[in-house]
Predict the 3D structure of the following.
Amino acid sequence: MQLAQIEPSRMISAEPLPMGDEENQSLSDNILNMMEQGILVWSVDGRCDYFNNRIFEVLELTGDDVALGMDRDTFRDRAIARGEMRPEDRERSEALIRAHQPYSFDRTLPSGRVVLTNARPARGGSYVVSFTDVTEERRAASDLAAAKRDAEMAEQRARDVLVTERKRQYESRLLSQLDEWLQSCKSLPELYKIVTTFMTKLLPGSKGELYIYSNSRDVLDGTCHWGTRDLHDTIAPDSCWALRRGRSYEYDAGGLCFLCDHVETHHHGVPITEYICVPIVAHGDTVGLLHIRFDGEGEDAARVGDGSQFAVRCGEHISMAIANVKLRDELHDQSIRDPLTGLYNRRYFLEALRREMAISDRRNGRFGLISLDADRFKTFNDNHGHDAGDIVLRMIGAKMQEIMFAGEVCCRFGGEEFVILVPAADLEETVALANRLREEIASQQVRFLDRMLPRVTISAGCSVYPGSGATSEDILREADQALYRAKEAGRNCVEAASALCSRPELRLAPDP
């Protein structure tokens, strides 16, 4: 920028100098003009008493922008017009001038340079103002502040990442422990107990329930809950938006959401503002529902949104565990059950028999054994077909399960042969139970296709441990021999083991 030439008279005080001081004044002017700062002196009444040449370069002024005798208000009006001085800086500095206090502020020139205005009061009420180019300093300070902010933000992000990672590792450890316990479950009741215990730790402050589809798939049964007593006995599959939509559902009273029917129809005792429902899905099949809510109050209370993703992860782990236990139960059931009647098979019965003998030996106990079969079953099959025979066998199995409800072990031993282990029973009780079963079966009418089948009867033989023998083979043989005697006696009757059959009332005569 081309600066105007300034006459020496404009750089001196407006007051006439005494004789002999010209030399000192000239030296002072030379020194002030050599300074990097622009210098300006205001008199008590606010007029320019002095300025050096540097002020034009520092403030980018022309020769008419400042002059001896110019009043301060005019100088400042022009500075505001150029946009380098803010009205608030002017008001604040004028208040300090009236109080005869120092002041300072930054000017931003049209060129973008930053000039520090620094004023100090002098004796007599005048002000000495210096103008210093601080563009580089302010830029460096701004860069430093920006770098500091970036460093603080990076540090905060690192802390957030560390907190998130620690939380994730903690959750992973809990889920790993949950998996370990779930994989050790041998039954669904055990699994539900573990879920109840772990969910209070996995989602602190939460309340929830777990529902599992019944075998009929028409309702979900309440299986376990934590932090609440609001477990339904059953809920309908269409009462939950998560089950109807096939994915997790988060309810927030402040959003575009609708309460699930199983929540709306249940009085929880507190307003329900948010919750999450997670379908329990295993191998592509929905097996249940996990319902979780947080009823805490205050800023520190846990919220569904804080743990929704983790709740979904918990649901996935629980899903797989339930599926595995159910699959294991199914496979185990298939290995120990007769597929036609649903009764235990021969292998399971022999294991149960040996186990019961061991228990009886330790406790000096006893148990009964019933061996039975359908009378003239081969002839029945020949006359009516094997499908009709299967219907009869299923009927016998169903009656056995209906009557035996005190821990008896019912088994289809093979073909039309069945055996029943009766815990803690003597021979008289065993015979009585066999007679009751015989009467119930004889009273049944079996329909096959469009006709009624002939009446079905059974014959049975009873033995008792340890009275009928010391081994499983002994008591089974004694029961079979008693069964053969029942056949020889005319069928549709019950016989006791011969070694104990000294009481005539234990033998039931055949029907005429």
